[in-house]
Write a structure and sequence with these properties.
The chain has 419 residues and is mainly alpha-helical. It is built from 17 helices and two strands.
Amino acid sequence: MSERTLEGTPPQVAADAEDERLIRDVGLSGQLRAFWGRVKSGELGMLPVILGLIVICVVFQLNEPTFLSSKNLVSITQFAAPTGVIALGIVLVLLLGEIDLSVGSVSGFAAASMAVLVVNEGVPLALAMLAGTGIGLAIGCFYAFLYVKLGVPSFVFTLAGLLAFQGALLYVLGRQGTIVLPQDSGLREFARNSFLTDAQAYALVALVVLVYVASQLVGIRRRAAAGLTPGSPVAVAVKAVLLAAGLGFLTYYLGIDRGWSYLPVLFVLLVVVMDFALRRTRWGRHVFATGGNEEAARRSGIKVTRVYVSVFALTSSFAALGGILLAGQLTSVSQSSGTTDTNLTAIAAAVIGGTSLFGGRGSAYSALLGIIVLQAIQSGLNLMNVDSSVRFIVTGLVLLLAVAIDSVSRRLRSSSGRG
């Protein structure tokens, strides 16, 4: 036996630590260096929209002291949720580098179908909501057929859908024009008047923190098992404390008025589920791969047809669900449902939140952050009694800025070799 064997083998080195070119985020200083390196190379993530949201809050609070009041923040979260659900579907289709211009019309058509079944036909609410969401699913499958089988560009068939389903909305409503949901409708109660109690809200915060810590610890174990540098448990503990403090204070502050409404809680739950599906499942990896380079994804064995079918189906389903929730919030469905600025607001929210128009980059949280930014702008301008025309101008400028930032970061990623 050699002397080295007798004395014991040297400690194993993590596989990613053997390459000096890789930046290892060990410790707080290492994580900060890694973060700054990603920013310089164009990996901005959600940093621009978070900074933008901070600026928006500061500007409106200085001009209107009630902007950050508990009552106004509760209203922002509540009214942002239905359109945010629609924007969540837009995030998915943008990840593929495609677009759906008909989500507004689909949301209105699905909501009208649900309302007609409940009010005119006496169908139970749950079954009518299921039917309305099923309409969205069928539309998405039809879109996928047009795309993968006939090769029709998504811009074309969704533009056609925008017009067609707006007409279908008018046809379903008929001469009534407007259908008011019953006063005792569970949908109205859920979307407008249902709020978590203080005990439920704090229990939910505790659950969120526990799930976060558990997921991070599982990630550390997996990296260690794979021979990679594991994350720092201390960093996880610090982040968990900050998360608990932030959510706890927000829950307390919202509780000064009415607290957390069921509607935004449902929206956030959908965002978390889709984020998990995109980042932690094979389907999600296939979505990013297809959006990044379809031909490369196909050659690597990914069933790109199934990816397109699933994404178009989910996009239209989220549009239908968002329209139904919006109907419950407004207590009625009319000929203008989904045909005003719902369509463009959902698309703008996804883009402003950080989802790239070029495909392959984005997050489910883009829908959450983007719609909060737009709803905050609308709420602030309304408090200042600014004309609605200014709101459209400001929204357009913010959207243009978001796309410009995306283009610049894409150029930086290309020059730095990150693609």
